[in-house]
Amino acid sequence: MNRWRLVAAAGIAVFMAQLDVTVVNVVLPTIEHEFGTGPSVAEWVVLGYVLPLIALTLPGGRWLDQVGHRAALTFSVAGFGAASAAVGLAPGIGWLIGARVLQGAFAALLLALVPVLTTVAVRPEMRGRAMAVVMTLGPLGGVTGPAVGGLVIERLGWSWIFFLNVPVSLLVIAAGRPALAAGARPRPPGRARLAETALLGGAAATLLLALSLSAGHGPAWLALAPAAVPFALAWRRLPDSRPVRALVGSPGMAGPHLALAAEMAAVMSVQFLIPFHLQRSGTASPAEIGLTMLAFPAAVLATGPAAGALADRAGARAVALAGAAAVTAGLVLLLPIGAGWGPADLAWRLAVAGAGAGLFAGPNQALAMARAPRDLLATTGATTSLARQIGVALGPALATATWSLTGYGVPGMRAALGAAAVLAAASVLAQLDPRALRTATPPTATERHGA
After folding, report:
1. CA-to-CA distance for 420 and 116, rounded, in angstroms?
2. How far is CA 85 from CA 153, 248, 329, in A?
3. What per-residue confidence (pLDDT) applies to 260?
4. Whole-angstrom Cα distance, residue 201 to residue 56?
5. CA torsion angle 365 367 373 376 (round to 10)
6. Exposure of 18 in the CB half-sphere (CA atoms within 13 A)
7. Which of 205, 207, 299, 364 could cross-link to 355 by cystine, CB 3.0-4.6 Å?
8. Per-residue pLDDT at 433
9. Counted domains in the chain
10. pLDDT tens by residue, 417-437
11. 3-state DSSP call for residue 187?
12. pTM of the predicted model, to two decimals?
């Protein structure tokens, strides 16, 4: 059996799950009109998916460490496909939001599982290339979501955004199952997992509410965010939190997690801001705005696969560091943005940042997985997925809050892009952990888990 089929299946799965984070943004006005609801309710079509991504990722990853990979793949992908069909068939807004929550729950399991499947699929000396393929497709799904959604709505209707996940899910299962051993059967999660989910869900819901309200009603609502702290402290006291805290706190592990959260927040800030600039300046049509934004994912696709080969030769840390530096450079180049800047001025700068993102994603994930204990691979996949989703949620909210300080003018746009550049620079600094440089092993053929 060609184990690269499993890598391809994992890549398609993560593309599908990440695409569903952003694809729904373009369908919200249609859903709002069709179900006769307002923006504040329609927004939960987005948040209903993101909430379980944050709340269930850690307990889901711990649970996946105890079941066989074949059963885990079948359960998570089949559940995601079934929930997607339920969204498309929704007769009302309540059903739709509930189905989106269920879809997000299975996506949380799927995103925690994908790095594990990629890690076990290939030999250690090929792992950087395999992870680069998968981690290139993940961000690509997120940033191409709005463009894909627009085309599907125009040709087939909004429900087909979700119906198309069903045949894709069947394809992933058919490609991935033969390459995996049966392993242990899934068991229902115990009370400890449910308590962990409730506490993380409370913290996530509070943060998402604060970010949502701040984006719509002003940055003063960010004052609600500290209310998440009691939930986080209560989770920290749980016995099940100890392995997670020990994992993230071990030498070499904090850097990839912090870098990932900061880089995703920076990228999503820019993806949120640039279309507004082009629309308000009147320098581009809707089609030209879409083509301009495609410069970023096109550059990701160009450099992502090469990043894996480079990581296998030169070490993942060096390639990830170069990628984060390139993202920072691309965002710094955007700082002088002016009212007259059009698609040509922005596209090449977005391409610089996209090229860096392609270099960063796969090697950074390979670095984290290589440093993880063998019995905590799914937990590591979960913690990195959580870091990614925090960045996805945080970026647009921080961009909106910063932009609003000057009445949504060009100076505020520059300030928001400056904040994104600072986040990108923080992703570089996070990788310069002195403990990691002294003690961690690079993810090449001499990785910790290599055979």
Report:
1. 30
2. 16, 36, 42
3. 94
4. 8
5. -10
6. 28
7. 299
8. 62
9. 2
10. 999 999 999 999 998 865 544
11. coil
12. 0.74
d(CA 260, CA 254): 10
Q: Which of 120-129, 266-275, 296-305 has the lowest mean pLDDT?
A: 120-129
Pair of tokens at residue 186: 């899934």
**Residue 172 domain flag:** yes
Tally of residues, the chain: 451
Cα R_g (the chain), whole angstroms: 21
DSSP symbols for 50-65:
HHHHHHTHHHHHHHHT
Query: Which DSSP helix (H) or strand (E) runs through 225?
Result: none
254 lies in a domain? yes
Instruction: Give 198 or 359, the one with higher predicted confidence.
Output: 359
* DSSP, res 122: S
Domain boundary among 172, 189, 206: 189
Task: Tell me how far apart the alpha carbons of residues 358 and 6 are, in angstroms, rounded to a whole number.
Answer: 21
> 91 pLDDT exceeds 80?
yes
- Closest by CA to 341, choosing from 269, 279, 404, 253, is 279
Token pair, residue 146, equals: 């709005």
Do 176 and 303 lie in one domain? The reply is no
Show the domain range for 55.
1-189
**CATH number, domain with residue 265:** 1.20.1250.20
Q: What are phi and psi of 180, to 5 degrees?
A: -120, 140
Predicted confidence (pLDDT) per residue in 153-180, tens digit: 778 888 888 898 999 899 989 888 887 7
Report CA-CA distances (Å) from 167 to 49, 272, 297, 390. Answer: 20, 30, 24, 29
